[in-house]
Amino acid sequence: MVQASRPMVLGNLPRSVLGEGPIWLPESNTLYWVDILGDRVHSYRLIDGHVGTINIGPYPSCVMPNEDGNLVVTVKDRVLLVNPHNGSVLRVLATVNEPPSNRFNDCKCDPEGRLVAGTMDMNEKNPTGSVYVVDPGFGLRKIMGSVTISNGIAWSQDGSSMYYIDSPTRRVTVLRYNRREGVVEGVIKHIDLSSYPGVPDGMTIDTEGYLWIALYGGGKVLRVNPVDGEVTGQVEVPAQYTTSCTFGGSSLTTLFITTATDRSRQTTGPDGYVFSVEAGVRGTMVSKCRF
Ligand code: BGC
Ligand code: CA
Prior knowledge:
Elements: E1 8-9, E2 19-25, E3 30-35, E4 40-45, E5 50-55, E6 62-65, E7 71-74, E8 78-82, E9 89-95, E10 102-109, E11 115-121, E12 129-134, E13 140-147, E14 150-155, E15 161-166, E16 171-178, E17 183-192, E18 199-205, E19 211-216, E20 220-224, E21 231-236, E22 241-248, E23 254-260, E24 275-278
Antiparallel strand pairs: 1-24, 2-3, 3-4, 4-5, 6-7, 7-8, 8-9, 10-11, 11-12, 12-13, 14-15, 15-16, 16-17, 18-19, 19-20, 20-21, 22-23, 23-24
The chain binds beta-D-glucopyranose and calcium ion.
């Protein structure tokens, strides 16, 4: 059992309507995250507390680093390359053809630098979403279909397994991932989390190979062994809509957790802020996209 401390609210940072998708960039000591319903990408430089905000939309759902220092941002139906300093769009990397009620949601770069990004039904009902791969040559491929709310994505250290969450299923699916080709080759198993409150949302993986999974509506993050599905730890967050998490800080042992408000913006609690907690274990860094 990994012992995590109590999460602390980073109340000096911007509050999001739907805070999501945190990533840590060690070279600039900076945390990035998105506010999907606030049309913003935020950043927080840990060494001096500098906060940056890029206005971009509609629905900026995920931000990933590119190898040349720019950002890859998914918006409603497009994948954009964005200058992190002034927010200008440098290039439209891909456009998907989806129903108007769909939008992009969570994404990650795979260990070979491709972008893997899923879509969702904004009504959160129909399995009209898909998962796409954008290859470094900008080719767009659909690798999965029939998902309702495409969410957390992570890979095992060797890249042979992809962990994937379609939130309403309330489970994590372990997929065989062909890293050389960037394709999914079958389901290894499902890890059922339906006995926990809320639905699984975003996730990250630590250096011991355990998944840290935010439960949207459950106000917590679970640490799960993907080999046997055992839950080996949990972080209780004083905000109900925990959306995603990532490791950061100088030793990669701080877990940053994004949260959402209940969307009525009526809440008086710390919902919508970023939280941080000492996780007691070292995390992995996100792979960068090679565009
Ligand atoms: C989506 C939300 C959704 C939540 C729970 C998030 O990733 O952006 O719209 O309500 O997951 O499924
Ligand atoms: Ca999410």
